[in-house]
Automatic annotation (TrEMBL):
It comes from Riccia fluitans. It catalyses: beta-D-fructose 1,6-bisphosphate = D-glyceraldehyde 3-phosphate + dihydroxyacetone phosphate. Its EC number is 4.1.2.13. It comes from the Eukaryota. Gene3D superfamilies: Aldolase class I (3.20.20.70). Pathway: Carbohydrate degradation; glycolysis; D-glyceraldehyde 3-phosphate and glycerone phosphate from D-glucose: step 4/4. The lineage of its organism: Eukaryota, Viridiplantae, Streptophyta, Embryophyta, Marchantiophyta. Keywords: Chloroplast, Glycolysis, Lyase, Plastid, Schiff base. This is Fructose-bisphosphate aldolase. The keyword Chloroplast applies. InterPro entries: Aldolase_I_AS, Aldolase_TIM, FBA_I.
Length: 398
């Protein structure tokens, strides 16, 4: 039976009257909001499939103390670049071997609560015939799935992009749920050097909101990820300004689309200076600015904030997360790292069977470090020099 989606977004929608924005080319036209009537009515959204309780439970499971997300959803093309860095060809067998190394790491579930998979991985099995999703769930790791179809140029913008994937998303998310996925990820990007334009911000926010609503209707907890790229020479104050604008618009559209805030997770960028900025920020400064953003723009109903690393070094990403957890927060503040968990793993493995166990130990080491950071108990003492090397790539695509 369908369930009523009564959540904090109703309060947001009924208490704030905002104007609608239309676009004509590059010109933004803002239409005034209609005056409120003496008696206002609130319409309740009805979730088609009644997944409300399950969504909330899944989100809370992922946002559990001392655990975070392993992002291993690189596209086959991006995975190929990773494999090429250690001298391997981009074949399905090599991709399967590397992904198997990750999902079969014993003890990983102590530090990892969810793993984001690429579609190929969702349907793959290990060499002994076990489904990858089963290898994860056996360790109490929730399988997730990347559902966007990548970035393409946004017509009428300042050389910016928008994210594809809404067409057919309902049927795909339903199929992914049947295969064992319980949460989804959609990554769009915002570029500060290119503006960002109002058009790009609105397109990103609206696309995320539509994706989130469709995912919830089919039982998947949506991870909302408008990544603000590190590209640029701007300072940390400019990053904060843009991030506030992006998240304000994103939550407005999430409410417009009747998304249940208790059944989503966020994957924001940390608020840092641009990669080309001369003034670098300490972990304490990053924590101060990032928490300021969250407190101003993110409702406490959201259960978890799972930060992306965005090209930071393994140690830098962990130090920044640790600094944010030095005082209580309204949300579970944790990680959803790809390169910041996998870089040392890949270089340890080198595609050699005899290196699988050492590579898995390297994964556990990084996962444990970030687990401690989520608890505010991490120290960088004894970290290897390799883990301190930055991984920033301009115009990074996933």
């Amino acid at each position: 039976m369908a369930m009523m989606a009564v959540s904090s977004n109703l309060a947001l929608k009924s208490s704030v009257s905002l104007g609608k924005t239309d676009f004509m080319g590059k010109t933004v036209l803002r239409q005034s909001a209609a005056p409120a009537s003496a008696k206002s009515t609130v319409s309740l959204a009805v979730r088609a499939a009644g997944y409300e309780e399950e969504l909330v439970k899944t989100a809370k499971t992922i946002a559990s103390p001392g655990r975070g997300i392993l992002a291993m959803d690189e596209s086959n093309a991006t995975c190929g670049l990773r494999l090429a860095s250690i001298g391997l060809e981009n074949t399905e067998a090599n991709r399967q071997a590397y992904r198997q190394l990750l999902v079969t790491t014993r003890g990983l579930g102590e530090y990892i609560s969810g793993a984001i998979l690429f579609e190929e991985t969702l349907y793959q099995s290990t060499t002994d015939g076990k489904k990858m999703v089963d290898a994860l769930t056996e360790q109490n790791i929730v399988p997730g799935i990347k559902v966007d179809k990548g970035l393409v140029p946004l017509a009428g913008s300042n050389n910016e992009s928008w994210c594809q994937g809404l067409d057919g998303l309902a049927s795909r998310t339903a199929a992914y749920y049947k295969q064992g996925a319980r949460f989804a990820k959609w990554r769009t990007v915002i570029s500060i050097p290119n503006g960002p334009s109002d058009l790009a911000v609105t397109e990103a926010a609206w696309g995320l909101a539509r994706y989130a609503a469709i995912s919830q209707d089919n039982g998947l907890v949506p991870i909302v990820e408008p990544e603000i790229l590190l590209d640029g020479e701007h300072g940390i104050d400019r990053t904060l300004e843009v991030a506030e604008k992006v998240w304000a618009r994103t939550f407005y559209f999430l409410a417009e689309n009747n998304v249940t805030f208790e059944g989503i997770l966020l994957k924001p960028s940390m608020v840092t200076p641009g990669a080309g900025c001369k003034d670098k920020a300490t972990p304490e400064e990053v924590a101060k600015y990032t928490l300021t953003l969250l407190k101003r723009r993110v409702p406490p109903a959201v259960p978890g904030i799972m930060f992306l690393s965005g090209g930071q070094s393994e140690v830098e990403a962990t130090l920044n997360l640790n600094a944010m957890n030095q005082s209580p927060n309204p949300w579970h503040v944790s990680f959803s790292y790809a390169r910041a968990l996998q870089n040392t793993v890949l270089k340890t493995w080198k595609g050699q069977p005899e290196n699988v166990v050492p590579a898995q130990i390297a994964l556990l080491t990084r996962a444990r470090a970030n687990s401690l950071a989520q608890l505010g108990k991490y120290s960088a003492e004894g970290e290897a020099e390799e883990a301190k090397k930055g991984m920033f790539q301009a115009n990074y695509s996933y």
